[in-house]
Design goal:
The chain is an alpha/beta fold. The chain has three domains: about 10-85, no CATH class; about 85-215; about 230-350, Rossmann fold. It contains twelve helices and eleven strands. Strand 4 and strand 5 form a beta hairpin.
């Protein structure tokens, strides 16, 4: 019997709390929830037209108008709560020197988000409630990636702007990130976003759309993995070991040219070869791939003065690896030059320092 009584009281109490919450939001934010809304406009229209058509039904008309107005307040207050109190997905596109349409990628992210009922009209609502527009969500670098000073300035400005956008949103909101550009710059993009929770989206060739391949947080990526499930690791190291080492990450369809003089003359070589022998599928555990790469990087940075990275891998995985390495280790990033067939030094991870 006591349980039955508690159960019978639970729902009225919950309803009362919900009504109280809606009323509080409406009173504190009248413009967004009661004044400048389509529901209030509709109620006003009905109140103005209905008496002219049904003059003998004033009490019914009043009830209908009041119902429209109150329902509108409830709906708008709920939306206001979603966009100001709950953690939100923040779609972001970063394009580095790539002719692809950044807005097309952003539209794909919006479509994914708006497919959920609570986020209908998401593009309009984040503008309405948070003053976030498309220009806040797309970052395009146009120029030579080997223009180091310009590239560094772009990364620092982008980090600052993303932090500003994040401050507009409720706590624990996460980025939905699409990166378009060379793999080499994906690593410092990850380093730039190292403290952010996010979902990484990779373009799929089958249906020409974007699919989430990883939901990442800094600490989860660094969890130790006792065994190498995804990579075969080969050490081509001299005795005594040389001061420098090249780590070659082979996890895509096109293979790394290990006979490049920029690699063979650099120092020792460590090769991470994807055990499946082909590109990583979107259905695979990308976090495990990242953990195994981080495991090797963390070990090697303690044994060598400098690391050179060469890679054939998805850009989203490179971002995740950048999140783990951040800018603390002496890692030389390279960019493959298709014209010469060689790996050119681009930038060192520890030379890009961000102010907190």
């Amino acid at each position: 019997m006591p349980n039955l009584v508690r159960s019978s009281l639970r729902y009225p109490v919950a309803i009362a709390r919900s009504i109280k919450g809606i009323a509080a939001i409406a009173l504190n934010n009248p413009r967004e929830t009661a004044i400048e809304t389509p529901w209030t406009a509709l109620a006003g229209f009905v109140a103005g037209i209905a008496p002219l058509l049904f003059s003998s039904y004033n009490s019914i008309i009043f009830s209908v108008v009041a119902a429209i107005f109150l329902i509108g307040i409830a709906i708008e207050a709920k939306k206001y709560k979603i966009y100001t109190e709950n953690a939100l997905p923040i779609p972001v596109v970063i394009n580095i020197a790539n002719p692809a349409d950044s807005l097309d990628a952003l539209n794909s992210l919006f479509n994914l988000i708006q497919s959920r009922t609570q986020y209908r009209n998401y593009r309009e609502n984040i503008n309405k409630y948070l003053s976030i527009t498309e220009s806040d969500l797309v970052y395009k670098y146009e120029g030579d990636i080997f223009d180091r000073d310009r590239l560094e300035d772009f990364l620092k400005i982008t980090k600052h702007d993303l932090e500003r956008v994040k401050r507009k949103t409720p706590q624990n909101s996460i980025f939905y990130l699409v990166y378009i550009g060379p793999i080499s710059v994906a690593f410092p993009i990850g380093s730039m976003l190292a403290r952010e929770g996010m979902q990484l989206f990779q373009r799929t060739q089958n249906n020409n759309s974007y699919q989430c391949v990883m939901e990442v947080k800094d600490r989860s990526l660094k969890e130790d993995t006792p065994e190498f499930e995804k990579f075969d690791v080969t050490y081509q190291c001299s005795e005594p070991r040389q001061p420098k080492v090249t780590i070659a990450i082979d996890a895509a369809a096109h293979k790394i040219k290990l006979n490049d003089p920029n690699i063979t003359s650099y120092g020792d070589i460590i090769i991470l070869q994807n055990k499946r022998g082909h590109a990583i599928g979107t259905e695979e555990d990308w976090t495990q791939y990242c953990r195994e790469i981080f495991k090797v990087l963390n070990q090697v940075q303690q044994e060598y003065a400098e690391i050179k990275l060469v890679y054939s891998m998805p850009v989203s995985l490179a971002i995740a690896v950048g999140m783990t390495a951040q800018h603390f280790w002496n890692i030389q990033l390279t960019n493959y030059d298709g014209k010469t067939g060689s790996y050119l030094d681009l930038i060192k991870m520890n030379e890009i320092v961000y102010r907190d």
